[in-house]
Design brief:
By secondary structure, the chain is mostly helical. The protein has one domain. The chain has seven helices and no strands. Helix 1 packs antiparallel against helix 2, helix 4 packs across helix 6 and helix 6 runs antiparallel to helix 7. The longest helix has 31 residues. The protein is elongated. The protein starts with a helix and ends in an 11-residue tail after the last helix.
Length: 194
């Protein structure tokens, strides 16, 4: 196994785990479970950002063709989504964790629709899942498969990746919208006729 693969596999595993945990948050119906999983997600997101930043920084500081340089070259595409995670997602996850913590004294409380809608917000799940998705080309390249050298592979791969990101984004937006609708108070019928 190449040493750049040993650098990239933990990063890909952390981003994949964060994407899976983020996808399951809106389905949780208990505040205690929501708080615990949000804590896991916060730890995974911070770990993913730290690992990605460490490899990218190590690649900048290293000279030559060391494994850290090859790993950093593969992770350049991950820099954008992980920056969005660091700037937007971590703050939202932290607020969601604190909101679920308000129900600590009543552990059996069902999760309110507002917390579930906040858990389904696209800026929580989308950047994490996109970060997991864009680490795949680096891991595939580290295994020795050179997909860019084969003619006619790069274009369809980029198209499939872009479509996957669009589908993930639309799915998160629809789920957030559906849960946010439940948080609105029901309209009371007017006493006067319009």
């Amino acid at each position: 196994m190449e040493s750049q693969l040993t650098i990239l596999l933990p990063i890909a595993a952390v981003w994949l785990a964060a994407g899976i945990v983020a996808d399951g948050l809106p389905r949780l119906r208990n505040t205690r479970t929501l708080r615990r999983r949000t804590g896991w997600l916060l730890a995974l997101a911070l770990t993913g950002v730290a690992l990605t930043a460490a490899v990218l920084t190590g690649g900048l500081l290293s000279a030559g063709d060391a494994p850290i340089d090859r790993a950093a070259a593969g992770l350049t595409l991950t820099a954008g989504p992980s920056l969005v995670v660091a700037v937007c997602s971590v703050r939202r996850i932290r607020r969601l964790w604190a909101g679920a913590g308000a129900f600590v004294s009543a552990p059996g409380t069902p999760a309110p629709h507002g917390l579930r809608a906040a858990a389904a917000h696209p800026l929580i799940g989308l950047p994490l899942q996109v970060s997991a998705l864009v680490t795949l080309p680096a891991v595939i390249a580290a295994t020795g498969a050179d997909l860019g050298a084969e003619p006619g592979v790069a274009g369809p791969a980029i198209t499939v990746g872009a479509l996957a990101v669009a589908v993930i984004g639309v799915r998160h937006a629809l789920r957030h919208s559906r849960l946010a609708e439940r948080t609105r108070p029901t309209a009371s019928p007017s006493a006067r006729a319009a």
